[in-house]
Amino acid sequence: MNHKQRLVVIGNGMAGARAIEEVLRCGGADSFQIAVFGEEPYGTYDRMKLPEVVAGWQSAEDILVNSPEWYADNGIRLHVGERAAVISREARRVYGADGTMEHYDKLILAVGSDPYVPLIRNMIGPARALRDGVSAFRSLNDCSRIVSLAHGSARVAVLGGGHLAIEAARGLLARGCHVQLVHRGSRLLGDHLDEGGAATLRAVLEQAGVEVHLGKSISAVLGETAVSGVEFRDGSRLDCRLVVLAMGLQPNSWIAAQCGLTVSRAIVVDDQMRSVDDGDIYALGECAEHRGEVSSLLEPIWNQARILASHLTGSDPEAAFHGATRATRLRLLGVDLASLGMIEAERPTDQVFRFPSARGEYKKLVVRDGRLVGALVLGSPEEVALYGRLFASATSGASLSSLDSGALAAQLVS
Fold this sequence. Notes:
By secondary structure, this protein is an alpha/beta fold. It has helices spanning 14-25, 50-55, 68-73, 140-149, 163-174, 195-208, 254-258, 298-313, 381-395, 406-413; strands at 5-10, 32-38, 44-45, 64-66, 77-80, 84-88, 93-96, 101-103, 106-109, 113-115, 134-136, 155-159, 178-183, 211-214, 218-222, 229-232, 237-239, 242-245, 249-251, 267-269, 281-283, 288-290, 327-332, 335-341, 351-355, 362-368, 371-379. The protein folds into three domains: 5-114 and 250-313, 3-Layer(bba) Sandwich (FAD/NAD(P)-binding domain), CATH 3.50.50.60; 117-247, FAD/NAD(P)-binding domain (3-Layer(bba) Sandwich), CATH 3.50.50.60; 327-413, Enolase-like, domain 1 (2-Layer Sandwich), CATH 3.30.390. The protein has ten helices and 27 strands.
């Protein structure tokens, strides 16, 4: 007799796949029959590499993380290309849009997020879809759409000022496009960079050939049958033939709301990543809200997956997620970025150290009571790694004077 519980995962992106991998790592194959609903017609792929697909450096097959065969090899039923449409908590069932049904004892929601689409005149075409000449930048299908629209030296407007927008610009540059980055904010990567760091990043972009427009809000997409440009709220215009949306993400929570789970910005979960309403339903990644925060970076999501699996399988029932640390590591146009902890002084006694930097580099540390409490570095991988080790040591309680960091430590405490 089969005494395994039925585990259903809705969402086959990086968060859902990581949760499954962690469940298997914790011995969950002996405890659960696993079924997965994946809305996209692929296995799991690495969204961080979508810019390389746009650039033409990698194919869709190159960025696959777990193929459909991987699921079969692990005894997992994968409903590929199948959107989960309804959750019945009373019947403990999930129904797919085509009528597929799976019973569950435990349920994981890893439904991610959708691109933010602003209310801009002439943005939406027939059937309430983005009009021809406008594309989001979130999926492999989006990449195919962008590549088909970006012909050689086409002028492109990328809307957004975050990591996704900058990476979209990188991919389009490689396609030979004239790329114009349009951001309504006053600085790029505003959540992670100060004024000096943002100015350095802007210089890197412009040196690479990206035309940067800050403090600009779009009011309309121009052109009737084909996109001819965008109009700003101040009345000025920008010529382009393609508009790429990379203005942020909106957590997917409609299926959770449909079955009566608490949703604020996203699906509200506790420290074990369980819905606050139903102990048999978990959520993680961009669709989950923990203590008022929604995580979109890989490091905290991987931590969520580990904790969820540890609790779900019983391998560590006390495992708890205490929130994401303020630590961001990215690579943008060949420049490594680390934004760790505080990036501005918050107390009168905080000390700020800035170092003379070469073009495309920026270094700043924030020190409190002899401890490193913040670091902001744009530069080489080696420098980012060095400052990351300093910050990790300081987070563990080490003072700067006790760190074995050679000339750097000597500079900071002198």
